[in-house]
Amino acid sequence: MRVRTLARSRYAATPFVLRLYLRLERSWILVWAVSFLTLMYLSVIAMEQAYPTQEALQARAGLMSNPAAIMMTGPAFALDDYTFGAMLANELSLWTYIPAAIMSILLAVRRSRGEEETGRLEVLAAMPLGRHAPVAAAALTVAIANLIVAAAITLAVASVGVADALAFGISAGLTGILFGAVALLCGQMTEHAKTASGLAFGILGLAVIVRGFGDVIEPTGSWLSWFSPIAWAQQTRLFTDLRWWPLLFTVSATVLIAGLAMALNARRDLGAGLLPTRSGPASASDFLATPTGLAVRLLSGTFVAWSAGLFVFAVAFGSLATSIDTLLADNPAIGEWVAISTDDLTLSFASVIVSLLALGPLILGCSAILQLRRDEREGRLSALLTAGFSRLRIYSAWSAVSSAGAALTMVVMGAGTGLGLFLVTGDASWIASLTFASLAYIPAIVLVCALSAAVAGTAAPQSLAWSLIAFIALEVYLGDLLSLPGWLRNLSPIAHTPLVPYEAPAAAPLTVMAGLAIVLGLLGALSLSRRDID
Predict the structure, then answer these.
(1) How far apart are CA 503 and CA 497, in angstroms?
(2) C-beta of residue 139 within 8 angstroms of C-beta of residue 17
(3) What pTM, to 2 d.p., does this model score?
(4) Strands, E assignment, 240-392
(5) HSE, side-chain direction, 13 A CA sphere, residue 91
(6) Following DSSP, what letter does each residue of 427-445 receive, concatenated?
(7) Which residues have CB under 8 Å from 506's CB, separation 6+?
(8) Residue among 134, 128, 168, 164 at smallest CA distance from 152
(9) Consecutive H or E run containing 145
(10) Per residue in 446-495, pLDDT tens?
């Protein structure tokens, strides 16, 4: 009886904290669910048009002989009789599980370690809360968010097959919950939310790499694949030979990791992590004591990690460029999906690849600049202001470092795409050519960064900047296939960027985008200088 009472007391007021977290996150969860539903539903429509015949599907199956294609999609099932469902699972499953995991990591860290770091949990702890109530409420919030996302995914692909669509949604939801548990465990290790997120994202990246190499060893999954939670979800064999038992690994691992997070939560002080923290240097360089130096110090780790990951992805994507001629010969409808020319298939497809990959630096730049707004709400911007730096100097330094980092990442991706082509063609000139081509996207990247800076400067909703990113992704990946009207497509900066090196660089649109970026940057700076700081 005493043990049961003690257990109940440790979880006391969990429903109250859960309601609070759900109220705070309801809009964020809804945006994720609608995004999953919209993008996956449109992807199904687009693929039905791109692969209308069995011959077209078999041509797509031929791509699975390329290790890079397996790395970027998943295990290859039923290649001899490739169905639309099997192709859909290859195209979408990996890129559904990863965003679900990212959503869960961000949500779990924000509602656990993030609440402690900002001091809000200390306010809550003044109420009669159980020791485990905040962590349990964070875990339940992640579970509910993934339940809603799973329903959205199921609804989006239900037209292909109800049972497999349900398995698709459940596998994505369980994968998200598993990485949410991983994030909660990382939150017990360190006293900083950013470090906890970094640890969890590192584990996610390792899981993706292990799954990729495991499936390259054996296209239907090798012994190595089974060490990755991503593989557990993909081994359900969606739309080919559905089996549920691989998800038992996901459920078991989630229970184990969440239980460990709870146990560790009971062994540490509020605000502290289990891993020891080392003291920093007693003094800083003159450069680090400036807003620019501080921005470089805080953002460089994120930029280096993103650039390394995107570089590997660009090399893999670039190595596929020479396969387009075979694919197009067997399935001419592919030409309606991507803007390629039959004059020089490899060159035009390589140019399209660079434009597709530009989305990565756009997301990175937007995220980095919006961190300034987060720092303002959490009081770190006020600390810089009290040190004697002007608002304009802080704003300019942060925006410039973020934009430069995103632009440099774009150049790295261009070089990676060229390296991928060099590896399959032996022509080293691709590296220089596609590195130069990536420079054409810098005005578009700077424009999106300037819009993000304007959002941060005016304290407008951050969803404004993220909505633009989502629209650019839709326009770049599905704009041709969905026949979006011209006026709508013109709202995307990428639509105005010439497909270099297949097309010649055009100065006019790049100059206009640069001019708009200056106007938006000034708008943000002026607004920040005149409004109250949160």
Answers:
(1) 10
(2) no
(3) 0.81
(4) none
(5) 21
(6) -THHHHHHHHHHGGGHHHH
(7) 498
(8) 168
(9) helix 133-157
(10) 999 999 999 999 988 888 888 888 888 888 877 776 777 888 888 899 98
